[in-house]
Amino acid sequence: MKKWLFLVLFLLLSFIFYTIYLGFENEKLLKKLSQNQNYELTELELKKGFFTSRANFKLKDGLNLGISVKIELEFSNIFLKNDIIKGKVYIPGFLKNSSKNEEIASFKANLKDLSLKLNIKDINSSSENGIGVLKGGRVFINFDKNFDFKNVEISFDSIDFSQFYDKFFVKNLKISYDKNLKARQNLSFNQLLLNKNKINSLNTKFSFNKTEQSINLQGSLKEFELNLGKFLNQNLHFDKAMFDIELKLKPLKFENLKVKINNLELFKNENLINLQGNFDKKSQKGDFEISSKKAIDEIFTWNGSLNEYFVRKNGLYVLHLKYENSLLKINELEFMDLKK
Predict the structure, then answer these.
(1) pLDDT tens per residue across span 14-39
(2) At CA 185, angle to CA 108 and CA 90, rounded to 5?
(3) Of 42, 68, 73, 69, whose CA–CA distance to 56 is shortest?
(4) Alpha-carbon span 260 to 212, nearest angstrom
(5) Half-sphere exposure in the Cβ direction for 47 (13 Å, CA)
(6) Helix residue ranges, H only, the chain
(7) Structural domain includes residue 5
(8) How many whole angstroms separate alpha carbon 285 and alpha carbon 325?
(9) Does residue 157 fall inside a structural domain?
(10) pLDDT tens digit string along 101-114?
């Protein structure tokens, strides 16, 4: 009887001391998080309990956006549950019409496999001035042992921002990003509306060249419309497209943008239209060539004719566009000044 009593007492004391030990380990973990150089924690508070410990802090606004992000954490001090951390994210004042509880997301972190799953609450900030709706937001992050992220996956069921004549809507948006910049990143969605432009689906892989500060995009589009009202007073519809495009920003400023279209294949009723070219924003220069085996007026239906702008070359109908200092040339002949 005494042996059994001693065993029960031993197990009970072991449980108590191990629970206390886990509380101190969770405190050490929080300090390790606060020492990460990729982000800065402020107003850090820790409340140690017997079964659970709680902490809250703010993330410093490193981009000076005027946004205050508050994080609440709950650590379990119980064996078999101590590798799970639950948390909530608050952004005070983010939602103008929200109640005092301005929770925008909740998450669960797994310390065993160093991962975090975050669910973003559906947000509706619509008003008489426009629509602002985010639905089904999710983020999944893998970390290394120093709690630096290795890769992240972001997805939204839908995003809708509209104001007066401006419209942006995207459905089933998915982005995956790897810290290894040489790895292929992914971007896809099922539907995009941007004002009068429409894309039914996009699937692209992109990679970064840190030395050249460039992004290479390769992928495909399906069922899309481009609004060319300024030039044609109508939309152009395509069945699909395949593309290989390079964007360069060196130094890292938008005015230094260089675009190189290695290949863009546009398909319309099984007819192929090829486009290659490049554009330099800083020098205000662009050079593009469009070619097709079939006359362009036989592929598209519109008022008037564009065949006169194409020349025959190596069995193809070719249109050469050159842009310099707002002046657009077609086949080396001046066509229009885009500033006028």
Answers:
(1) 333 333 334 445 555 556 555 554 55
(2) 30
(3) 73
(4) 14
(5) 8
(6) 2-34, 229-232, 296-299
(7) no
(8) 7
(9) no
(10) 578 888 888 877 88
Per the listing, tokens 């566009």 go with 321
Radius of gyration of the chain (CA): 28
Q: Using CA atoms, how far apart are residues 290 and 281, in angstroms rounded to an integer? A: 20
Token representation of residue 105 = 């997301």
Residues 289-303, mean pLDDT to the nearest whole number: 88
Residues in the chain: 340
Structural contact between residues 205 and 179, judged by C-beta atoms closer than 8 angstroms: no
Q: List the domain range (segments joined by +) for residue 260.
A: 201-340
Count: domains in the chain:
1
- Residue 82 inside a domain? The answer is no
Beta bridge partners of 222: 201, 240
How confident is residue 178, by pLDDT bands cut at 50, 70 and 90? Answer: confident
pTM here is 0.76
223 φ/ψ sector (left φ>0, alpha ψ -120 to 50, else beta)? left
Instruction: Give the amino acid at 46.
Output: L
CA distance 227 to 57: 47
Structure tokens at 222: 């399906």
Is residue 151 a part of any domain in this protein? no
Burial 11-27 (b: 16+ CB within 10 A, else e): eeeeeeeebeebbeebe
